[in-house]
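Researcher: Please predict.
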Amino acid sequence: MYDNTCKYLAETYPADFATWLLGKPIALTKLEPRELSSEPIRADSLTFLASQDVILHLEFQTRPDQAIPFRMADYYLRLYRKYPQQRIQQFVVYLLPSQDPLVGQTTFELANLWHEFTVIRLWEQPVDIFLQNPGLMPLAALSQTPDPIQTLRDIAQRIDCIAERRQQRNLTAATEIISGLALDKQVIQRLLRSDIMKESVIYQAILEEGKQEGKLEGKVEGLQEGLMEAKKQIALNMLGSGLAKSLIVELTGLSPAEVDTLALSN
């Protein structure tokens, strides 16, 4: 959820992210990951933005991951293979404070291969730039701020000043989700307008994801119920053949009490 929300922000407000990471509001467009290779990549966890001169590769992480250095080298080579004339800038953005050495690792080394990328620890970033750019505001409460609650209050006030309602509700939803990594849910709901969040594309995406997970859980439950019914039918057949209860328990996996219940109902 956090990865996808950050991905949404980067793809919706690319100039704001370019201002933060590249130092100027370069016009960037989304680059589809499937264009890089026929091999699968984790499209839900990364963002590629491109201009005529530069490709910006972003990864957002809530926790350290030892696979990150290899992935950055791998994606760099894929990008270079397809876009050899463009400069490639890679950033791993860690959202939550950590003492793990992995959040400081900026290179991948293997035999004669050496690759370097940039790591950004969000909690070390000054809060000002996040408050100055709408697409970055939802990240502000996780930045280097002396008072995250006051920062969230400032974000709420700035979002309320946005005239375009669709933008307002999507930024509210993104802020509520990302701020939830650092702040209490009740505090967030008190400061943000949860009523308009429910109309956002982010909230609707979360609902849809929940529905899909619910369908999958329903299928699993149905399969488990079907398997249990099959076991019971097999046990009934065994009881009818006069097999010992202990053998039925061993062969079907049913408990002795379940076999007894079947015997009484038969």
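Model: Strands lie at 29-30, 46-50, 54-61, 87-94, 107-110, 113-116, 118-121.
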